[in-house]
């Protein structure tokens, strides 16, 4: 829940602005007349949300974008982004953009301060709103140049695991350990390794790895500096007793 005043400005094709209840888009009269199902579609256009110094610009290009999904991913920004900023990167921007793209065939991607989501993915997977938790972490990370992709994605999925709001309903879990895995597999495999490290080795290791990555001081020796062991030694320890 967001405490404080939430300013909303609607910038639809008609260029009409109106005040609506926070986190809800008011359906037009003709839409309401078509029944509840139609009213659940978010109008095409751009909505700007502000609260406590944070700003989210949401551009929806999908006439079938679900209102419940919109509500949840907006809530994730205002509920989780400040927490991630405080923990991982206090100097990062407080203004980001969501784009709902009906022509994008992937799931989601982040470029700079803009997260683009696949409209088709949300239509088929309306519970998978914590893709937003993963993607806003990429904005928080703000890594530039030379960062291992497996670690970048592993940290983002670790954040989804720790901060996600709907993972269980979406059927999203961390995979069980397998000897065929590697810490460089990225995403959920790496995330589970990082969760194990937080639980059994150092509660601050992910925070510290993130700092090293942002400051361009990360090397293979960073693991030794933080834990006294190489990443390969840590992975071997994990494989010997992988219970979280």
TrEMBL record:
It holds the Pfam family BSP. InterPro entries: Uncharacterised_BSP. It comes from the Bacteria. This is Secretory protein. It comes from Chitinophaga agri.
